Amino acid sequence: MTVIHNLGFPRIGVQRELKRAVEAYWAGKQSREALEQAGRELRARHWRQQADAGLKFVPVGDFAWYDQILEWTTLLGAIPARFGQTAGAPVDLDTLFRLGRGRAPTGTPAAACEMTKWFDTNYHYIVPELSPNQQFRIAREYLFEQVEEARAQGYAVKPVIPGPLTWLWLGKGDAFLNGAQDEGKLKLLEALLPVYRLVLERLAGQGVEWVQIDEPILTLDLPQAWKEAFGQVYAEFQTAPVKILLATYFDGLKDNLATASGLPVAGLHVDLSRAPEQLALVAADLRPDQVLSAGWISGRNIWRTDLEAAVAALTPIKAALGDRLWLAPSCSLLHVPVDLEQETELDNELKSWLSFARQKLAELNLLARKLDGIDDDATRADWTAQQNALAVRRASARIHNPAVAQRLAESRNVSRDRAAFAARISSQQAALDLPAFPTTTIGSFPQTQEIRTLRRDWKSGALTDAQYEHAIREEIERVIRFQEEIDLDVLVHGEPERNDMVEYFGELLAGFAFTRNGWVQSYGSRCVKPPIIFGDVARPAPMTVGWSSYAQSLTARPVKGMLTGPVTILQWSFVRDDQPRETTCRQLALALRDEVNDLEAAGIKVIQIDEPAIREGLPLRKADWKHYLGWAVDCFRLSTSGVQDDTQIHTHMCYSEFNDIIDSIAAMDADVITIETSRSNMELLEAFEDFHYPNDIGPGVYDIHSPNVPEVQWMVDLMNKAAARLPRERLWVNPDCGLKTRAWPETRAALVAMVQAAKDLRAAA
Ligand code: GLN
Ligand code: ZN
């Protein structure tokens, strides 16, 4: 029987049990022992579910209290000095939590380690902090303990660990300022590899046969030195007493194929969901003693797999490789929700098109049976169900909206161009009459408990529509009066109606579905519940016009309409796989274009379209950037180009690297862009300066992620730094990002200071 296995299972638990357990522990409401017990229960449940699905081994090492990279960093004893780790002593769980979030029930609080996005996913890992003389040792026992735990429950185990090169690539440190690629980090291999060897030897001593070593950086553009390091590292592991399955995922191996297939490892896992074209190439390069693990079933999306296509592609490979062909999902299932069976409110048809982690394992099992030629009643029934669901989905009238298709075809001829910026900005100035250094905010105001309760009560039916609308209007009025009182120039309505910047729009657009329990870990104990875009996207009715025009009716000052951009909605959803992503994005862009135009018609003179996710949508390989940025920018322009010259379009982005995409940001041609820059002391504006960025820009003058209230003079100084790089008349004054996570007292104090800073700047001019 074809071996099936799994690269990793979601650890959060179907009811987010892990989140509850760690948060209770952090809050001092649960003991360490109770926390450990919750972890054991989750692992036992997940192993049982995987073994029941027919997996040959259960993965061990994919469980993490906070993040799997952080687990590994602490196992290696790589603890930054500020956490006060005693040399040679085991690293305590609370130390792990302090690295992840700065504090824990015991130990002195310290600045948490940086967190950043895991490849092109919405998962965030804790960045290893490295120093040139970094020492390593086995400083935690969890991996070996969990191997024992699983074996005691009767399972064959396959430990899963981050590869040394991927772990180093992800790391950073003062001495390694050239980013991921910094070759200086490779010098640490000398100290690191003996510890890896020791880990492999100890695992072998526990009876482990296979170890999965994850090296997803093999799907990236790698500098030569890193490619060569692969040969060195894996030659050292050749004599280790275990078989190594080298796992790659998130893209094809491409120019790293020769590197990967030349390594002396016992098996190679490749992502055939993202890069099916590499199957024949990888299979051809396989040595006669090697296993190929085919990751056909997507670990990144939630659609049922077209197993017929899988059987067609894999049958010749199976014939050639026999038992040396293994099957797995494309990557760890960390990136999908746990169990579709929990979704009692999705209609059965839509539900039959979907597959979450547990369902994916069942698909894997069915694929193996088909490849093995099994033709019993159960297999026939499963196959028929699978095929029927796919056929129904393909033919469904719910996913195709002829009006949307027609609109999309016609949109090719819609101009994405507005008048030249110089002409636009002068008509906007005439219409808006703003002072120099105009002040504004990014959109949201504090989301208090009362606001959350309002929305919950409305959703549960405890509040009528009219009661809810009345209460939200009261909140909008409060926010408007507050902004007038502190003398902001361009106001916002505060976004009290929004649970989340994507979900709010998804709920009002056709083509979206929502789950009740479709949680996916984002970072630490934080989970997100991405909407599912299953069909053509259309806007049955205006989405924000009511709130925005009410807000505008309260004041003579301009109120910004506030929308989430097409790329960000796409990026933070599970997207249909039956058409290119760019097609779905254009549908979103057209829906937003209607909203933008309706806002303008309702008298809204300033409209902001947030695109914080444009950068994170970048493909892993540079060669693919141009295509992606081309359609991403086109979608933004499609959304915004329907307005008159004197309507001002803003956008907002909250990430810190602009250098390599500045031309695309400029090509979006927003009249005003507000960005996060305060933490970098305005150095991030260098990219805009070098590019001679032509339009208006609001470099965030204070960090909203902290409750600290910024000093007036400090903000004045920052703006003067900005003015040294960019024309003064192009500059706006605003915070870094939205204020929804802040409390009112600090929000008021910070904004009062910010407005004063703008006034000081004007007076000095
Ligand atoms: N308008 C949104 C807000 O203020 C922007 C959020 C974001 O940048 N992620 O909350
Ligand atoms: Zn932001």
From TrEMBL:
Binding site for L-methionine: I442, G443, S444, E495, D610
Binding positions (Zn(2+)): H652, C654, E676, C737
Record-annotated Cobalamin-independent methionine synthase MetE N-terminal domain positions: 5-320
Residues annotated for Zn(2+) 1 binding in this entry: H652, C654, E676, C737
Recorded GO MF terms: 5-methyltetrahydropteroyltriglutamate-homocysteine S-methyltransferase activity; zinc ion binding
CDD domains assigned: CIMS_C_terminal_like, CIMS_N_terminal_like
Positions of the catalytic residues: H705
Keywords assigned: Amino-acid biosynthesis, Metal-binding, Methionine biosynthesis, Methyltransferase, Repeat, Transferase, Zinc
GO BP term, example: L-methionine biosynthetic process
Annotated cofactor note: Binds 1 zinc ion per subunit.
Coiled-coil zones: none
Domain of life where this protein originates: Bacteria
Named cofactor requirement(s): Zn(2+)
InterPro entries, per the entry: Cbl-indep_Met_Synth_N, Cobalamin-indep_Met_synthase, Met_Synth_C/arc, UROD/MetE-like_sf
SUPFAM superfamilies in UniProt: UROD/MetE-like
Enzyme Commission no: 2.1.1.14
Reactions it catalyzes: 5-methyltetrahydropteroyltri-L-glutamate + L-homocysteine = tetrahydropteroyltri-L-glutamate + L-methionine
Sequence ranges assigned to domain Cobalamin-independent methionine synthase MetE C-terminal/archaeal in this UniProt record: 437-759
Pathway this chain belongs to: Amino-acid biosynthesis; L-methionine biosynthesis via de novo pathway; L-methionine from L-homocysteine (MetE route): step 1/1
Role summary: Catalyzes the transfer of a methyl group from 5-methyltetrahydrofolate to homocysteine resulting in methionine formation.
PANTHER family, A to Z: 5-METHYLTETRAHYDROPTEROYLTRIGLUTAMATE--HOMOCYSTEINE METHYLTRANSFERASE (PTHR30519)
Name under which the protein is recorded: 5-methyltetrahydropteroyltriglutamate--homocysteine methyltransferase
Taxonomic classification: Bacteria, Pseudomonadati, Pseudomonadota, Betaproteobacteria, Burkholderiales
